[in-house]
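User: Modeling request: complex.
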Amino acid sequence: MDFLMNPLNLMTFFPLVGVAIILLIPRERKDAIRWVAVVTSLVSFFISLWMLSMFHAQNPNFQMVYDKIWMKTGGFEIHYAMGVDGLSILLVLLTTLLTPISIFSAWTAIEDRVKEFTIAFLVMEVGMLGVFLALDLFTFFVFWEFSLVPMYFIIGIWGGPRRTYSAIKFMLYTMVGSVLMLLAILWLGLSQGTFYLPDLLAKGVNLPLHLQSWLFLAFALAFAIKVPMWPLHSWLPDAHVEAPTAGSVILAGVLLKMGTYGFLRFNLSLFPQASVKYAVPIAVLAIIGIIYGAMVAYAQKDFKKLVAYTSVSHLGFVMLGLFALNPLGIEGGILQMINHGLSTGALFLIVGVIYERTHTRDLNAFGGLWKIMPIYGAFSIVVALSSMGLPGLNGFIGEFTILLGAFKSPVLGPVFTIFAATGIILAAVYILVMLQKVFMGPVKEKNLGLKDLNWREITVFAVLTLFIFWIGLHPAPFFNLMGPSVEKLAHGLQAAAVAMH
Amino acid sequence: MVLTNYLLALSAVLFIIGVAGVLVRRNALVIYMAIELMLNAANLAFVAFAAEFGALDGQIAVFFVMTVAAAEVAVGLAILVTIFRTRKSVDIDTLHRLKG
Amino acid sequence: MFLSEAMNQTGTFFHLVPWAVLFPVLGLLINMAFGRRMGEKGVAAVAVTASGLSFVVAVLMWLSLRAQPAGATVPFLSWMTPVHIAWAFRVDTLSVTMMLVVSGVGTLIHLYAVGYMHYDVRYKGDPGRYARFFVFLNLFIAAMMILVTGDSYLMLFVGWEGVGLCSYLLISFWFEYDTKGNLSLANAKAGNKAFIANRIGDFGFLLGMFYMFSVFGTLNFGKVFSEAPTVAQTHPQAILVITLLLLLGVTGKSAQIPLYVWLPDAMAGPTPVSALIHAATMVTAGVYLIARSHVLYDLVPAAQHTVALVGALTALFAATIAVAQNDIKKVLAYSTISQLGFMVAAVGVGAYVAAMFHLIAHAFFKALLFLAAGSVIIALERAHHPLPEEGGHDAHHNDDPPDFDPQDMRFMGGLRKVIPITFWTYLIAGLTLAGIPPLAAFFSKDEIIADTKAAFPLVYWLLVLAAFLTAFYIGRQIFLVFFGKPRSHAAAHAKESPWTMTSVLVVLAALSALGGLLNWPHPYLAEWLGHTLGEVEAAGLNPLVAGTSATIAIVSFLLAWWVYGKRPLQSASQPDPLQRPLGWLFTAMQAKWWVDELYWAVVINPYIALCRIAAAFDVWVIDAIVNDTAWLTDFVGEKIARWQTGFVRNYALSVFVGVLLIFTYLLWR
Amino acid sequence: MSIDLLVLLVLALIAVGAALGMLFSRNTVYSVLFLVLVMLTLAVLYLILGAPFVALAQVTVYAGAIMVLFLFAVMILGPQKLAGAGGPIGWQRPVAFGLTLLFLVEVVYAFAAKVGKLGALSCAEAGFGSPAAIGDLLFNRYLLPFEVTSVLLLVAAVGAVVLTRE
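Assistant: Request completed. Predicted assembly structure:
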């Protein structure tokens, strides 16, 4: 029974309780199913708050660690290990926050096969939480692959016209990366004698640099596809455009962060020298991602594709932050992951709201919505400004810290910051043009009858806006949570950087 | 005095003729017979080595080869007969439906 | 009794400074929540009191500063812990001066807006938006307060972008119309242009802050200014780069040469917005920034020269364009750019007090000019198609030409008789702008010119030329609008605006007339700012310079009378009297030297094309690579499948080939 | 040239000739008979090699039973001659011939260069290939394969019957 006494396990596997209940409910009682799903994910959220209360921020190491021998094969013990530290706590909270929001927002959007939809969502929450909490390379890989399957079904079944194509593309693209990662995990595990992360971190990976580089690159490829970084991003627009609104919110909000978290937890922690060696190329790719994402987003006609490309741009910032290899950059990167989850999640909800009413995503079909849907307009302006990085809102805090970190970074430098900072101007361009096309200008006749937000949508947006303002005005609690852990990580990287030069 | 090499050479030649038979002929029966020929060539090699090393195991192997050959011929001809009923021809090339 | 309690132990009210920001925020929240239910009167009351209370706090700060001139820093809340920057307010003479101007003029404009928006909202046919206007106006006051009272560059930056946001929201307030009132995207595009131009400026500001943080380790004013001299030694060119990057930010916000293009388009916003944001307060934020960072600028003469040069060039360049504009608000917009050029030139040569003095004077008379222009526009609008509740009959029976635009001066003329109060207040403000002696701007502009004469002769001549053009274009505007005979039905039957608007005009007229007393007989302002800016340049009037600039102003004004007053324009379609003598030069000035077209051709269109290429590249190359690998595997698979012919003999052959290969391998090995 | 060698040569020639005959004969019955001839010559060879029991088994089982079965099959299926050379995949035949010749060349080369002198026949003690010796070996060491082959034969028999049922 001690399995469920550990808060992390309880939180991760609690959604399965919801799944069990939903299985018992007959298919027709859609609302009952939806309520059970929302309540389960909310309870999971409260458990995560309980876990947060037990998390003491000064301790940089893993906390609430649960470690059991899972299987013994060929003289190897494969551990089932779960733990949380400063790097992953915020992402766990983001997951448990966004899941109820996206289920709640899919109330009227999903009508057919609601039972399977909610089950897929809850199972995915288990997968996602597992990824962020796993402390054993093996467990991590299991959860990593496991979380793909529900998203494949969510895109594939409830998606738009080209859903099968984009679902398969999404699945295969990620699988290609994770195959290499599996090889790297095995090679690492076998060469170091253990898959257990704390041991690996304590002992340090004693491999010559060129071998370390290969491992680093294998991990990097798998995570770069997931982030997505510049050349490997072509699955994202298709997956987002075809996924249902709730699916897009979770895909953008959490699944993309598994890539950046992976870089943080594995690439930076396990291979400091290789990180220093590859910091500049990755930073260059990140900057290309920022500028390229912004430009392509500006040229999009489809509202959802525009928002999808903004994710490429925002996560370019996160990657730049992470590979600045100093505490400032990494803290900015982690916070920007949270900000991106909130503001891009909200942006997808905005697309969802208008898509539910007009069943089109073509930007030119809208116009002057602010006049006929004032509340919707107000929330959208706030969310758009937050994703544009307006000071006083959450986006700015992340971007400012990242750019500052990159500027003072031992490996990067002012030139990187200048190019990345142009991203801020380009972000303003595509956001404002989007606002102009959708919310301003004269109202088209067919849009006159559109109803404004109902109470359900308002609660969802209110929660997200609350966080947007909170992180914008008082981010101290968030920074304190991750401070020590990032300090410890950055210390390792600093030593590597000094050793390398 | 007779060297085993010569016997092996004979066995090889017979084997190659068997292979040629399988590849060239279009009549299913002749292909079966070519296979029998190849088996016999193998038996010859077995016996030759049994004789040379003075160990009877080679000859035991011949028996096993024989039983397998017998089983194979039985089943093979049965199949051939059933096919013949539908195809009315023994030509192996008529059977080409199972393709990529 | 209330004051005594509020006073803390040291007998000052410094700890109340956060309320300067919180009152407007409270006001906007109330209006946002209960706007619909409170009706126009309620909304107006809440908004005006919020701004008024902010002004009261400013006055309290002023009182406290009189007692303790050094000022204080009031911490408020922790903010960016990793960079050790907190929400903290800095109260000193410089910030309080700005607070007084912002909240003072702001409250007056709130009052004016109550009347103006009552009509404007009805003409645009969406009374529901009344509350939203005042929400944004209060948000602007709050953002401006954060800007001026911020204790670190980052907090200043929050206010900086906050006011940028408010100007965006207020410019595109009527987002479905254009300035003439027909449905179009013009206002929305103007809003975008303003925000993006500001954002480009803020890009420079941000980089400046990054460099500052990497060199100083902090963005807090106190620490930065104390460490500046030492850093100037250790990192020789650091301060230069930082100050120039800050200048880029200033050009964005205070509409100087490269990034001024958004201000004329910002006239798309309702007139109170133009008055408050694009004349009195927001655009002066750049001047405040340089004045605040005077320590940095004083260390690097090269930076100061560039600032002065940029200011002077802008002053002259904008003045030339203002001379040839027909839209009443466009003239004032370019005039604002030009006057800002004066201020930036002043801080460029280190004349911080002169700059602040001109800033204050400008806030008064330019706000008045805009509000009076607004009153003229509303007067013409009400005459053109009167509102139903004012006995307006629906049919457009009057003989106004179809393309009648209430903002175009060619349709005005002879308004002094029909709207006398607006005329007299406009005249006072116009003469102040021109720099006619007894009025405020004469002293402030004269101080600037006197200081530049000593420090930077080239800038001096540029400013003198700009002053000459200033007097000319304001004279032109006054004679076109108020003298001669009415050139349209609406001009003939214009009616004076209600007392709520005209009262504000009168107050502002008084302020702009008497503004000179601030620093003339006795340099109060110089002493007052001295506490913050340290040693301040010698005040007092230089008779020679004063004389020359006064004569220039009067001569130029008379010239304007001679061109536009003596033989006033007869009809709206008559070409401008300057058209013939100046020929292509006049058309160039009217077409704003085609700077907008240049930016479109050089920056915007190439960017759009590049984005399209990138989008196509993304689909046809990156996506294609992925899809083609899928197609390739399919193609290869299909080719291999063809090898299974179905003939048993082929399979036998393949087996044999296998045997052969193995055999040969075994042989050769 | 010793007598044994001469005998071997004659038998070899007969065997190869019969095999080629089987290969090229148009009439299926002829090729069956040629195959029988090959088997008989092999039986004689086994006798020479001191494997009398195997030789007799060869004659009775192989030549006798299996070839008779073939004759039955030929009779059932009718000995029509297949006209034409290549049939649908004409290219098969020449390629097959080429490859077999290549294989032959390689085998010859193998014998010439690679295979050393193997030992001469030892024709050791009498009773070497006698049924007693084979039986003893068969039922001791090779009992399991013996049982397995019996099962195999059973399956083959049942299979043949099932397959040819109407």
